[in-house]
Amino acid sequence: MVNGGKTNHEAVNCEQVWREISNYVDGEVDAGLRSSMDEHFRTCKRCASVLSGTQNVVTLFGDERMLEVPAGFSQRLEKRLARLEKNTASSGSRWSSLSAWLIPVAAIASFTGALALVDQLSFKPPAKSILAEPGRDIPPEMLVVVSDGSKVFHVAGCPFIHDKATERTITAKEAIQDGYVPCSRCLRQYLKASVTGQHDDDEASEEADEGQGEVVGAVGH
Amino acid sequence: MSDTEMALNNPVRTREQDLIASVQRGQRELFYELVQPYERRVYAAALAILRNEQDAEDAAQEAMLKAFKNIGQFRADARFSTWLIQIAVNEALMRRRRERTVQIEGIDDHRSGRGDEEKEYAPRDFADWREIPSEALERKEVRERLAKALATLDQKYREVFVMRDMEHLNIQETAEALGITVASVKTRLLRARLMLRDLLAAGWEQGWFSRLPFEKGNKPW
Questions:
Q1: Could you tell me the domains of chain B?
Q2: Which domain holds residue A92?
Q3: ipTM of this predicted complex?
Q4: How does pLDDT run across A59-95, given as a tens digit for each residue?
Q5: Are residues A86 and A148 in the same domain?
Q6: Which residues numbered 38-77 in B keep a CB inside 8 Å of some CB on A?
Q7: Is there a contact between A74 and B36 if contact means CB atoms under 8 Å apart?
Q8: Fewer Cβ close by (within 10 Å): the C or N end of chain A?
Q9: A66–B143: do the CB atoms touch at under 8 Å?
Q10: Which residues of A touch B147 (CB under 8 A)?
């Protein structure tokens, strides 16, 4: 059948078949070549074996079962997406609340003059939660730790740092500029300074809620 | 063809298009539902390029987050799966460039296609496999053997094979995803398929494709 890689009676020899076998499997050879190769496979057991083996490779590896993700991949992805979505949504809502704000402010400003406008624009609405407080009197050069896990900055060693693999040290000033807020545990003293008496009750309840969240998060890790 | 007929012919595609439109309109919470069917393919694409499971997961998840942030740029005339895989490939290639090993392996060589791929590959093993039923993939042992064989291929062959035969991109899409020519894709694909066939033919001859999973003396515990 095969004589030094060549056949006696085929229009194509074994080497030509091997060169084109991948295209043949993909249906990317013209009708003439396909017919010659078909004839060759009928008479050359070795090339028929190469063909069946190649088809097996394509079929087996092409099966969805060959694609596996590590355990917990989906949960980790879903969690990261939820976090990103939350950040995107909150920055969007901050913008819309600011926009909504500017309308009455501008109306007032039109009556009270340019100086009053400056004053109004520099005024910020109170944060709804202690967890969103920017903090006060934080030494700008203090070294703090941030990570990709959340938009909170911490002192080194704080047990509530999410996603420790990505943690990095920067100054408090940089962290604030990047939109991070102080951790309500390890940087509590800077939050307390900015919280008025009326927030105390809210703070206690939110602390409890956040505590539960942290436990769930820790288990998740 | 009417919209209804199209929907009946391809309900998955239509559902996907609906999801894309909803996410682009702002329903970001639907994004995970949109990408969940593709997470295995995205991970496999990253793994083909990075080899290391942890790095592949990081790249795959980062790719999903980038897709989330850039979903507004996705055009309806493109295939969503291809767009997603392209992001994963880019992310993985970018990470690989950062690694020192790449400097040794040489990106130029990877791109230009120099090396042994220009020599023709001749099959070495002519064992007659016949058809291996895809039910064989139910067995973890079989999947592991196949994955191990794939891992032994050189980088440039493995990534083309994965994109084409596991991700089911067409030749043109594979070339675009990897930044190589169509001719290189065809040459590397042929070689990858024949090499895998030879690697697995030995296992076929030894009978592990047909062996029962828990033979005497071969228990997994």
A1: 1-105 (1.10.1740.10), 114-212 (1.10.10.10)
A2: 70-125
A3: 0.78
A4: 999 998 888 888 899 999 998 988 888 777 666 544 4
A5: no
A6: 39-41, 43-44, 53, 57, 60-61, 64-65, 68-69
A7: yes
A8: C
A9: yes
A10: 66
